[in-house]
Write the structure tokens for this entry.
Amino acid sequence: MDRFRDPPMDFSSLLLRLYRLSQELPIQHFQDAALSLVKQVLPFDSSMWGTATTTPEGIEIHTVHLHEKSPEMVVAYEDLKHQDLAAASVFGKSRVTHTFNTDRFFAGAAHSEFRGFLQRFGHENFFVSAEGIPSRNFMHWFSLYRADKHAHCTEDERLLLGQLAPHVMQALALNRVMHLDHLEAADRALSPHGSAIADGRGVLYHADPQFNALAQAEWSDWRGPHLPAPLLAELALGHECFIGRSIIVRPYLEQGLLFLKARARCPADQLTPREWTIARLIAKGESHKQIAQALGRSPATVRNQIQGIYEKLQVSSIATLIEALRSAE
């Protein structure tokens, strides 16, 4: 029986700390903290953590987090990724953890260029742990690198990482969903709402039932696992929000990911910027004469605009106007 089949109590304590960090730390700090925690039981010098798909030219990185590693490494990797036999060995598998010694695995003249790249960036020995979705040609992985030629990765360490890695990846998913919850608290106007997380290529990492229902109402033939093409194209332009026929989507770009909040369109979405200004002043209790004076317009003009606002919002009192504005602010 291998020594890690029944994890010791300190392993359980590590998991408790990991999941607690996923709830307590902001998204920009969690991955470094999680890797530092892993380092306490599995020594390594640097790490790369991300998601990818495969192409004929090698893996196509969607998201990447570098831990104690220069961005120069990722740039250099792009020119050599088609030679990465280590990545090829884990792709297409549902769950796998492998160990590699650079001199042995990339031995011979045919691999000298990629071997030189690995050694240049301190990848003498390394682990790769991955979870894949073969049907989508998609992989979530992280690599742990050792710069010492003699610090070989042992079988016991591989087994330990194989048990730990799914929890590390799940903790990251929870941390991202927690970040969505914080966005909700800061943007209560989009409640009730739908939430989703996607990368810059539109691959969905999370989508709640409300988001799916809202998206399907807008695009009846959409079923995922990517964002609807019209939505992704609009978000790529850097607009503050997407306004569709029946949906409003607001993106927040952080850590290379799109955190999306969506809601159904409402009557207040029809208001012009000028009407919004007047509506907010009405909500504060200002009379049409006071509003006219503040905006430098005639009372008659403002009175007519107020009537138009009430008609657009389908309301008949200040209380219901305030409620209508809250649904879209």
Notes: Residues 268-326 form a domain with the Arc Repressor Mutant, subunit A fold (CATH 1.10.10.10).
